[in-house]
Design goal:
Oligomer: homodimer
Strand content of chain A: under 5%
Number of strands of chain A: 2
Low-confidence stretches of chain A: 91-102
Shape of chain A: globular
Mean pLDDT of chain A: 86
Largest interface: A-B, 139 and 141 residues
Chain lengths: 238, 238
Amino acid sequence: MRMSELSTSTGVAVPTLKFYLREGLLHAGERTSPNQAQYDEGHVERVRLVRALLEVGSLSVAQAAKVIAALDSQMPLSSVFGVAQRAVSIPASIATSDDVDADAAPSVGATLIAELCERRGWRVHSNNPGLALAARVLDTYAALGLETITTAVLEPGADAAQLVAGADLAAVASAAPDTAEMTRVVAVGTVLGDSLLAGLRRIAQEAESFRRFPLPEDTPAPAPLTAAAIAAQLDEDC
Amino acid sequence: MRMSELSTSTGVAVPTLKFYLREGLLHAGERTSPNQAQYDEGHVERVRLVRALLEVGSLSVAQAAKVIAALDSQMPLSSVFGVAQRAVSIPASIATSDDVDADAAPSVGATLIAELCERRGWRVHSNNPGLALAARVLDTYAALGLETITTAVLEPGADAAQLVAGADLAAVASAAPDTAEMTRVVAVGTVLGDSLLAGLRRIAQEAESFRRFPLPEDTPAPAPLTAAAIAAQLDEDC
């Protein structure tokens, strides 16, 4: 198919497709003349994946390019995990060079996370991006005087992470022995799984909040939820 | 204290503090002359909170301003939950006006999420931002032909969310009856909790990955993890 047809098939505008090509997010088509190239179903799939990483996974173009390169590189599964984990781990923050309490605070979170891993028998490399991410949040709670959050959430959070990680790996295993498909499950599931979990957490928080802090009796309870009501929200977000 | 001292106390540069003031992230000091104002411990605390929301929570300035306004507004807890949830729910994406498969796909995820809530007795308002977030991820898996991920992760993900939400609310309850403190726990815990969970998930993924897909025998196992090794990662990230 020509680029205009690739655009129609994927719903992605031609200038955006050209941008994907320039940024290495999309492999070149087969050139049929100096001004024209042919694209195939592999390109349609790739464009859908790129959109998913950018729009649903909220990756930057540079981060998405790294994940795509990992998919194409035939690197071992554990390395693809690492690349995908790193792509979404580093907050797109306005981080500055000094920390709130650089002398003391980092060790609080780092110590708690090291002890947690020891206690649970979690053997991981010290460059796992989750270590610093989790430690930094715990350091922040400490810097804000909110250790009460750490006390309440660290162990249940670790239980939850264990549950989800088991499911993540089960998803990968269910794609075996197709290595390319397993790699795709790793990349997409890792990047988008955070959003899924964040979404489910919000739903469960509200449900739990009603249970713990009931509304006054004269306040109407939420109407029963329908798929149509959720679909309406989806349309609004677009 | 003067602004220069507020800067020293918090490690935030004076131009950044002025920016916080302009954007409504920091309340004004007490003016002592046309060119000077005095700041107090309340300002130090607020600056730390703003940095946490921006840098660790990766909120945009506009999102952080909404959370700060909610904290200052004395609105009911459930409303602060809503504001904090919304602040981190909407991916900072390059979303376009059309979806990959706008006609059919949204209903797959919306239906799955509505059924999940029904099955688990999760009563929530249809404007809970988690509903659309989770439905969109499931729709994306479907659009990419990766329903295998949905099958493997939806129920364990919901179990995990339930665990974490229970802990989130326990943290809030542990700050009772200090309403201001409960509100702060809701805002900070909601915004930063996603990052903590994402971090723990990465650690558990690698540990689980070694268990399921053992490395060849001649590959050295990860060295035992130390707090110092994690602290070194934290320094690098800064």
